């Protein structure tokens, strides 16, 4: 369990990844994303999670440049979009992302969704990028257990991370257990359920007990479950507040109560049924 904002988890290849970071999904390129990333870096965040399809890699790159934090202290994730999947096209897409970010390497590169008939070829491209030293770690996003099992039949390298929709209404326990058995770290996207959980009365009550917000309770639940988490915000006070979760600990009873909120309810698409 991570103990502070800079604390790390060790991926199965020995690479150290911060257990807490900033996500920039739905953050506009230009000033909005530049400011969000700079606020986060100023607050002590080290991990930033973007993707080609977010169309804000350039802004992320600009913020990294302007913030002046040494590159080796940062952990930058981006993702290969569905339209770019396949061997040659994934290699080309990576170069485009690298150029937009203005970086020499990426810390973690993820397959964004399991596009049927394509993700195995994409993974071969990822293995090449990894062997060539262009990425420090490779992984997947939105993969169910059966996608991972299928990938592992031919994969030379096991994914280091599976980034999935994960929050108290979609706790993904069976998938988390499977990933743990394969030494794949689980990372939560939309950890706050796209904002839908912020009025939850059960979580509010738990928050009052610790004098914490609902968001802080959920993010603390992630940390105590060894889930890497990347809450998104564009507001400086919220970015600081989200990370202010290392001065309290949820009791086992509270963890159990939060676990019991699970309804297998998604805010995003089901990885078995998406059309983009």
TrEMBL record:
It comes from Heyndrickxia ginsengihumi. Belongs to the aldo/keto reductase family. Substrate binds at residue 112. Transmembrane segments: none annotated. The keyword Transmembrane helix does not apply. The active site is at 54 (proton donor). GO terms for molecular function: oxidoreductase activity, acting on the CH-OH group of donors, NAD or NADP as acceptor. Keywords: NADP, Oxidoreductase. Residues 21-262 form the NADP-dependent oxidoreductase domain. The record marks 79 as: Lowers pKa of active site Tyr. This is Aldo/keto reductase.
